[in-house]
Amino acid sequence: MKYTTEIIVKVPIEDFSKKFDNPENMKHWQRGLVAYDYISGTPGDVGAKMKLIYRMGKRDMELIETVTHKKMPHEFHAMYDTKGMYNIQANYFTETPEGHTKWTTENEFTPTGFMLRLMTLIMPGAFKKQTKQYMQDFKNFAEKGTSVAHA
Fold first, then answer.
1. Coil, helix or strand for 68?
2. pTM over 0.70, yes/no
3. pLDDT tens digit string along 48-91?
4. Which one of 49, 71, 86, 124 is most buried, counting C-beta atoms within 10 A?
5. What is the rounded distance in angstroms from the CA atom of residue 101 to the CA atom of residue 60?
6. Would you put residue 77 in left (φ > 0), alpha (ψ -120 to 50) or beta?
7. What 3-state DSSP class applies to 139?
8. Long-range pairs of 59-66 with CB within 8 A, sequence gap ≥ 24
9. Residues 6+ apart with CB under 8 A from 32
10. How many other CB atoms are found less than 10 A from the CB of residue 151?
11. Which residues are CB-neighbours of 21 under 8 A, at least 6 positions away?
């Protein structure tokens, strides 16, 4: 399943990049994130691996992020691997004529288990909705300093 989502964040691209590229900020815009830990590589560099732990309701979900391409402030690409699902995400950041940042994300989800394969077929909107929510939460954090850390 593939889809593209975009949002305008009303901050200059350099400010956007500093906030986006700081892992300490993830808790402010990634709902459910409870912990992260570097596994290998230089944090943030191509090839670096990081374990991300999210609490979704009453269960925890663990993802392994691998940075596959990074050319900040304009591009950040990563692969995410979790039980039953594999996700490739390409993020592009461009400056608008107004001096804001347009964030475009291209997502490709590949289910490796039957139940998640069924979910991508029956409920593709749930994946898109979650991506849009993270993007909106980042926009609120970058523009207004609003955090979802205690939401």
1. strand
2. yes
3. 999 999 998 889 999 999 999 999 999 999 999 998 889 999 99
4. 49
5. 32
6. beta
7. helix
8. 60/34, 61/32, 64/39
9. 54, 55, 56, 61
10. 8
11. 44, 72, 76
